[in-house]
Amino acid sequence: MRQTLHLTDAHYGQVKLMHWSGFHFKQTPQQGMEIVRVEVVEPVGRRREFQVLWLAYVGEAMPELDSIWVLYLRRFALEHWYRFAKQRLFWTQPQFSSTQASERWSTLMPLLSWQLWFAREECVDAPLPWQSAQDKLAPGRVATAFASILAAIGTPTQAPKRRGKSPGRAVGDKPAPRPQYPTVKKRAARRKKTEEIPELPQEIVA
């Protein structure tokens, strides 16, 4: 089935959308696929021509045709957030022993990002000696100066007690070993080519 849609975008201009359904990949004929072609016919305020954008959608319910191409353009912000979560929020740094703990830790990443976003107005910039001061703080700079907010807010918990002398583990108590999981390989290892040794003539063998 083919569908064509013309719309006007304030940023790009006249946009032509073409949608095909009922396709699938060669290796997975049971999985349906939607194909969308995005073409900027008359750009606004730009002399250069936009290249035609081809999109393939695989999922349960496809978004509306007039919004799916705009959602694809948001991938740049998502990619920057993934880099920030891995490098600054240490998303992939901990090594948990269970899948549930890993999922809970991943759930905290968006919450931490929103916390830094809401604190950008209350944060006082604390640049490092080699950094210049900024008026609009990026999430990384907010994370650097976030300790001052935590010190001003305080914590509702009680002060930690002195540990004293720990009795240690009971005699004969052996903790269970940490569970081990098989290594996930992205691709199969290539087999090394073995050179075939040619057979010697019977005269030489004799």
Overall description:
It is a single chain. By secondary structure, the protein is α+β, with helices and mostly antiparallel strands. Among the domains are: 72 residues, no CATH class; 60 residues, no CATH class. Helix content is 30%, strand content 18%. Strands 1-2-3-4 form a four-stranded antiparallel sheet, covered by helices on one side. β2 and β3 form a beta hairpin. The protein starts with a strand and ends with a helix.
Q: How can the largest sheet be summarized?
A: 4 strands, antiparallel
What is the strand content?
Answer: 15-25%
Mean pLDDT: 83
**What class, by secondary structure content?**
alpha+beta
Please compute the radius of gyration using only Cα atoms.
29 Å
- How widely separated are the two ends? 75 Å
What's the shape? Answer: extended
Question: What's the SSE pattern?
Answer: EEEEHHHHH
Strands of the widest sheet, in order across it, are: 1-2-3-4
What is the tally of helical segments? 5
Please give the number of β-strands.
4
What is the fold's blueprint, element by element?
Layout: E1 2-9, E2 13-24, E3 32-43, E4 53-57, H1 65-73, H2 75-87, H3 99-118, H4 139-153, H5 202-205
Antiparallel strand pairs: 1-2, 2-3, 3-4
